[in-house]
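Researcher: I'd like a structural prediction for the single chain below. Treat it as a standalone chain; there are no partners to consider.
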Amino acid sequence: MKRFISIASTLLILSSCATKAYIPKNEKEAAKMQQVENAVANGNYLIEIANAVPMGGRLINLNGNYSVEIRNDSAFVHLPFYGRAYTAPMGLNDGGIKFNAPIDDYKLTTTKKGVYKANMDIRTNQDNYRIYLEIMPDGTSTVRINSNNRSPMSYYGELEFDRE
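Model: Treating it as a single chain, here is the predicted structure.
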């Protein structure tokens, strides 16, 4: 009997922790979910970055126009960098992570909860980047960038829909 109770309680706990798809609470959330789905499916979206987290550091609130844009088969990245650089940039305006380059390898998956995960490789003249994007159904996003010449960075932002 004790074994039955422990198995039953374990099943009850597991069923309460089971992953469930994100269900919108109203029409406004449903419309935003549809916008997110359309933007990601088309491969044409812009993530406005609001926060940065260097490896081993604290959250940094950003006030500038920082973004990651995926348009067709290219990435347009303009982000600050706070961390260790193994190779220093040469020019005064070369700080941060800034590039416009074609995407070499792009993989998009969706989780059971409706989170979009995009992984991509980008090669520029200065560095090679591996970018990991997580886009939630409500548009909030996480961007992680690994580089050959710099320590990893994470950024938090939101998909932007009201652009020309």
